[in-house]
Automatic annotation (TrEMBL), chain A:
SUPFAM superfamilies: MetI-like. It comes from Brachybacterium sacelli. PROSITE patterns: ABC_TM1 (PS50928). Keywords: Cell membrane, Membrane, Sugar transport, Transmembrane, Transmembrane helix, Transport. Its main location: membrane. It is found in: Cell membrane. This is Multiple sugar transport system permease protein. Residues 74-267 form the ABC transmembrane type-1 domain. It is a multi-pass membrane protein. The chain crosses the membrane at residues 16-38, 74-97, 109-130, 142-162, 191-212, 246-267. It holds the Pfam family BPD_transp_1. Belongs to the binding-protein-dependent transport system permease family.
Automatic annotation (TrEMBL), chain B:
The keyword Transport applies. This is Multiple sugar transport system permease protein. The keyword Membrane applies. The chain crosses the membrane at residues 23-49, 87-108, 120-140, 222-241, 273-295. PANTHER family: ABC TRANSPORTER PERMEASE PROTEIN (PTHR30193), INNER MEMBRANE ABC TRANSPORTER PERMEASE PROTEIN YCJO (PTHR30193:SF37). It is a multi-pass membrane protein. Its main location: membrane.
């Protein structure tokens, strides 16, 4: 009796020790980034480093906006993200519904084709896509970042998630709607779509997340500083002679993760359910 | 007579309804399929076409050279480093990534006080932009940075982390792993929480200890999720790009480079479009073959309740 409770206590302590270690590895880079974002250039390179800045230097944060049109770049990222999310919904909700409930001829083959698109790495198609964008006059515009991303990456994944969501609903809903004289389009929009609202939310979150994180594509398509997106802009806080301006760069990086964390804590449940949905019901 | 006409007219109406149903389905699929064909299919055909040409960007000429770009991959001395590097990330990130994610998911699946805080914390790096994560890490591993200071506190002199060789690859793998492990943990955690309690309870009544329950009940139950995590990490590990670009630019030489970065370098920095396209096709084929192989093997590994 005594030994089991002691063993349980030991087990629990070990668990917490491991959890704290994991938390330490996950959080240290972020805390270190915040600490560096408040340091003066001389303190940043001091060895051994200081953990809490001796003198808090808020200028790093104002320099973020002085050295680059960061507010504009931030807005670019937000607008592109929103458009990717909308386009993803527009393509994936009907497609997912068709694959799950309408099942037209050859829908199995179409589904397989979409699944295989999910495995094409962006690096493998970036060369033709760049020439494509050049031919359309889309270089140094945001169009390829919205259209190509939604069509090739986020919408196929979202279609998969939406298909799984629509599959879980019982067939009686369709029959009941048909008896009431509801047309196919109305059945879809008024009965089925509202029922998969959690999946809609997770699809939006996934699309936003993917778009916000993109680096290679904006790096290649965009040229003008005022058109850049946040990840590319973060890499431009460098002194051409002295290397990275660590303090300013870390301040900009800190600013870049705030909206993501905000969205996460607001939509935590949906993020998680969105990630798990595909894995469980196959 | 009347009965047969009635039946045929019903059949006629039914097939008409069937036609309408198909038409409606295709209309719904149209935006996705048109976009997919106009962008995805065209891009793949285009990249294959470019890979058998010698493209001169400045002169604007394209000359058909057959498989020369591909044979160049075989003789390119830098590929002797780049391809093993790429496979190093694929093997380490997928296998270690899946195992670590599974262990963390089991750790986080317990009913401990404050467990939700730890679950959120481990997911935070996954939310941070990869570029931000790579930049913070480049700040941490720079000479006399935080990592050297932490090691210095216990009397170890930090080695040159980014000077190439296996150490740099390990550093990259760790950065990539810590960034993405949270997503995989969440997927596996979701699967763990869906394991029916009755099964675990039945195992316990049969006298199985926790390791046996884990091996015989829990792992088979969550095997589809494990497979999904494994496939996601295999695909993702081919795309180690930001770390390479931001921390070493593949250097020194190509010592820390990977296939994805070489595609970018050859295509956009050196303007060797034909060769870069051949590398891109190779990247694509490798991923396709590997995912197809895993998908084929899934029936032997994955437990299906319905089978």
């Amino acid at each position: 009796m005594r030994t089991t409770s002691r063993r349980r206590l030991l087990g629990r302590t070990l668990n917490y020790l491991f959890l704290c270690l994991v938390a330490f590895v996950a959080l240290t880079p972020i805390l270190w980034m915040i600490s560096a974002s408040l340091k003066s250039p001389s303190e940043i390179l001091r060895y051994p480093p200081t953990i809490i800045p001796e003198e808090i230097r808020w200028e790093n944060y104002t320099d973020v906006f002085a050295l680059q049109p960061f507010a504009q770049q931030f807005l670019n990222s937000v607008v592109i993200m929103a458009l990717v999310a909308v386009l993803t919904l527009v393509m994936s909700v009907p497609a997912g519904y068709a694959l799950a409930r309408i099942k037209p001829l050859a829908s199995g083959a179409i589904f397989l084709a979409l699944l295989s698109v999910m495995f094409i790495p962006p690096e493998a198609t970036i060369i033709p896509l760049f020439q494509y964008a050049a031919a359309l006059g889309w270089v140094d515009t945001h169009y390829p970042l919205v259209v190509f991303t939604a069509v090739l990456v986020t919408a196929p994944i979202a279609t998969f998630v939406m298909r799984q969501a629509f599959l879980t609903l019982p067939a009686e809903f369709e029959d009941a709607a048909a008896l009431d004289g509801s047309g196919r389009l109305r059945t879809m929009l008024q009965i089925f779509v509202p029922l998969v609202r959690p999946s809609l939310a997770s699809v939006v979150v996934l699309a936003c997340w993917y778009s916000w994180n993109q680096f290679l594509e904006p790096l290649i398509y965009l040229r003008s500083p005022e058109k850049l997106t946040v990840p590319v802009a973060l890499t431009h806080y460098e002194d051409p002679l002295a290397g990275p301006l660590w303090g300013v760069q870390m301040a900009a990086t800190t600013l870049s993760i705030i909206p993501v964390l905000l969205v996460f804590f607001l939509a935590q449940r949906h993020v998680v359910s969105g990630l798990t949905a595909g894995g469980l019901k196959s | 007579m009347t009965a047969s006409t009635g039946a045929s007219s019903v059949r006629g109406r039914a097939s008409g309804r069937e036609k309408g149903r198909n038409l409606f389905g295709y209309t719904l699929l149209a935006p996705q399929m048109i976009g997919f064909t106009a962008v995805g299919v065209v891009a793949i055909v285009w990249v294959i076409w470019l890979s058998v040409h010698d493209v001169n960007v400045l002169a604007g000429t394209q000359e058909f050279i057959g498989l020369e770009n591909y044979s160049r991959i075989l003789t390119d001395p830098s590929m002797i480093t780049v391809l093993p590097n790429t496979f190093f990330f694929v093997c380490v990130l997928s296998i270690a990534g899946t195992i670590i994610a599974l262990l963390l998911a089991l750790l986080l699946d317990q009913a401990l006080r404050g467990i939700n805080i730890f679950r959120s914390i481990i997911f935070i790096p996954a939310l941070v932009t990869m570029v931000a994560w790579a930049l913070v890490w480049s700040f941490i591993v720079q000479p006399d940075g935080l990592l050297d200071a932490l090691l210095g506190a216990v009397g170890i002199d930090g080695p040159p982390w980014l000077r190439g060789g296996w150490l740099t690859l390990v550093v990259f793998a760790l950065i990539q792993l810590t960034k993405n492990v949270g997503i995989n943990v969440m997927i596996l955690l979701g699967a763990l929480q869906a394991v029916p309690h009755e099964l675990v309870e039945a195992g316990r009544i049969d006298g199985a200890g926790p390791p046996r329950i884990l091996r015989s009940v829990v792992i088979p139950q969550i095997s589809p999720a494990i497979l999904m995590v494994f496939m996601l990490t295999v695909v993702g590990s081919f795309k180690v790009f930001e770390v390479v670009m931001l921390l070493t630019e593949g250097g020194p030489g190509v010592q820390s480079s990977v296939l994805a970065f070489e595609v970018y370098k050859q295509g956009f920095l050196l303007n060797d479009i034909g060769y870069a396209s051949a590398l891109a096709v190779l990247l694509f084929v490798l991923i396709l073959l590997l995912t197809a192989a895993i998908w084929q093997a899934r029936k032997r590994v994955v437990f299906h309740e319905n089978d």
